[in-house]
Amino acid sequence: MYRIVLCDDNGDYLNIVKGQVKNYCMKKNIRIELETFQDSSRLEEAVEKGKLFDACILDIDMPFCSGIDIADLVRDRCANVFVIFLTAYHNFAEKACRVNVIRYVLKDKMEQELEGALDELFFRLERLECQKNYIISNNRKYIKILQKDIIYIRKVQKDVVFVLNDGKEEKERTTLQDVYRKLENPEIVWLDRGIILNLRHVRKISGDQIEMNGGYIITTNTEHLMELKRHLALYWGGMV
């Protein structure tokens, strides 16, 4: 699932873009978590509080904080984020290109050009997703783990143990906090103090138990199960 944000100070236009993006993703069977902001200062505040996105579709000329400023701020926190600019004005093109966006779409040509821009966006996102991995590197070993192959991660004394879908386990002397920060993957969620799990490997929840691919069973409390169900509703439902 990709995290996409739309921001435009024109509420009517924001709804039009939102509708086109949702229709595109439904047609292409792409799962996204879509957030919209009409006030760019609220988006700025969300990013400064740690909100991360895979892609931003931004109006450029907005009060409080321009689309270019938002793009700079988001990229400071996540170098891999992709940006599409939508604007009614030609004279922003030179500034927008300096921010290294993937597309610059004029609003009066959006119906003709937005689909092509989205094609390019999701092509790049899918290519980046294929490259997502986690690297364990120390004096004894260097291991590259594909994030999609991680079923869950648990803390065992001073080690973090990665349980993989081939039945193997890998260990790293680190903290769960550092692992979670490095993963930066919306499919991988923090269940409780000692467990991180991958949503793509959850098979079902029964009582206080979570059944994972590979036959692994994880037990947790009601509060953590409720939060996990919220994440799964977004993941399985494709919130578009």
Percent helix:
25-40%
Mean pLDDT: 86
For the report, how would you describe the main beta sheet? 5 strands, parallel
- Count of alpha and pi helical runs: 7
Q: Give the DSSP E fraction (strand runs of 2 or more residues).
A: 25-35%
Q: Summarize the helix and strand pattern as letters.
A: EHEHEHEHEHEEEEEHEEEEEH
Distance between the termini: 10 Å
Radius of gyration: 20 Å
Instruction: Output the structural class.
Output: alpha/beta
Looking at the structure, what is the overall shape?
A: elongated
Largest beta sheet: what is the strand line-up? 2-1-3-4-5
Number of strands: 15
Low-confidence stretches: none
Structural description of this entry:
The structure is a single chain. By secondary structure, the protein is of the alpha/beta class. Helices cover 37% and strands 32% of the residues. The protein contains seven helices and 15 strands. It has helices at 11-28, 40-48, 67-77, 93-98, 110-130, 176-183, 222-237; strands at 2-7, 32-37, 55-59, 82-87, 103-106, 133-137, 142-146, 150-156, 159-164, 169-173, 188-192, 195-198, 202-206, 209-212, 217-219. The strands form four sheets. Strands 2-1-3-4-5 form a five-stranded parallel β-sheet, sandwiched between helices. The mean pLDDT is 86.
Task: List descriptors.
15 strands, 7 helices, five-stranded antiparallel beta sheet, 37% helix, 240 residues
